[in-house]
Design goal:
Order of helices and strands: EHHHHHHHHHHHEHEHHHEH
Low-confidence stretches: none
Radius of gyration: 21 Å
Strand order of the largest sheet: 1-2
Number of strands: 4
Mean pLDDT: 94
């Protein structure tokens, strides 16, 4: 598939080359590796344990009755952590310098119901390249009940989206594992993105079928076979995804669908006025940079600017390189959007939902 747009290559002041040199110097001067370290490996163990320890206790009958719902809620936290902290770095090649390790850890997404293949196309390629570009960045595509771009199609019910959007976010991952992955797989195979990016359509289709079968067997079928009430299993499954869906969706919305970052719509053959790197600064925001717990739990994705500029660097380094990025952006008189507090960025997202719901256009 031919990309309909391109980015300007004019960087008169050489911003990104200077920034990249400064970031590289930080690692070399401090003799630090850009990939994961013990910090990352320990976090991986914690997130996998949050998912599998309560699950195992349930299977062995050590947690019974209504307490099973608590099991699924803890698993929801584990799923969120795996998605935000573990598979995310791995599928960006940031977890390890060894390709096979990144690929193996990247399959943790398939283990919790998603598809590492469709993620790489939708997130790594489309979102990271065409950030906030309508009809190119699928994250801000028109949704059945949400308008997430100032260029999106407006419908009457969007007037109320600032009230119901947060509830819809709870159903994001359940929709993802049941429908979205399949739709993306068929679309990417049909439009050539699969082969263009070095994937084999038949191979990826077989992997997805097997992964989905294994996922629904372990999350739904096996507990029932071992005596857990099917009603509790289904309700627990829903609670797991409602928690995880809300957490994961909010993290990405707060980085792009807030006040400050630009939205674009470029017709075929046109060029975005900025270089790719400067475009990332114009379309991305950080939030709660001093909150260590949020930074730890969300895999540094509250430092979304640094992640977009340096996706192959492990997220444990983002707080430090953010100092370099922020000062360099200021030096070059470029935007650096940042929300100090969580309530502030959530309020900004609410206001953007309301603005887009009013039918406003860029």
């Amino acid at each position: 598939m031919q990309a309909p747009i391109s980015f300007s290559r004019k960087d008169e002041h050489n911003f990104f080359n200077i920034l990249r040199t400064r970031v590289n110097d930080y690692f070399s001067d401090n003799q630090i590796k850009k990939k994961g370290s013990f910090q990352m490996y320990f976090k991986t163990i914690v997130m996998l344990a949050l998912y599998f320890v309560p699950y195992s206790l349930m299977l062995f009958g050590m947690i019974e009755g209504w307490a099973v719902l608590g099991v699924y809620l803890v698993m929801g936290l584990g799923m969120s952590g795996i998605g935000l902290c573990v598979m995310h770095d791995a599928n960006h090649g940031a977890y390890s310098k060894r390709k096979w390790v990144n690929q193996l850890i990247g399959y943790s997404l398939d283990m919790v119901g998603g598809s590492s293949f469709t993620w790489k196309i939708q997130h790594n390629l489309l979102h990271h390249t065409y950030t906030n570009v309508y009809e190119m960045d699928e994250d801000i595509d028109d949704k059945p009940f949400l308008r997430l771009s100032l260029f999106g199609k407006w419908k009457k019910h969007h007037r109320f989206q600032q009230y119901y959007a947060f509830l819809l976010y709870c159903f994001a991952t359940v929709s993802w594992v049941i429908m979205k992955d399949w739709k993306q797989l068929f679309r990417y195979n049909k439009n050539g993105l699969t082969e263009k990016n070095g994937f084999n359509p038949t191979h990826e289709t077989i992997i997805m079928i097997l992964a989905k079968v294994l996922y629904f067997f372990h999350i739904l079928v096996l507990p029932i076979l071992l005596g857990v009430s099917w009603g509790l299993v289904l309700l627990g499954f829903l609670l797991l995804h409602m928690l995880s869906g809300f957490v994961i969706t909010m993290i990405f919305q707060l980085a792009h669908v807030v006040e400050g970052p630009d939205h674009h719509a470029v017709e075929e053959g046109n060029m975005i006025e900025n270089t790719w790197a400067i475009h990332q600064l114009h379309t991305t925001a950080n939030f709660t940079p001093k909150n260590r717990f949020i930074t730890w739990f969300v895999g540094g994705l509250n430092f979304q600017i640094e992640h977009h500029l340096f996706p192959s660097i492990c997220h444990i380094h983002y707080p430090e390189i953010a100092k370099i990025v922020k000062s360099t952006a200021k030096e070059f008189n470029l935007p650096y959007y940042e929300f100090p507090k969580l309530h502030g960025v959530v309020a900004s997202h609410y206001r953007m939902l309301k603005l887009m719901g009013s039918g406003a256009v860029a």
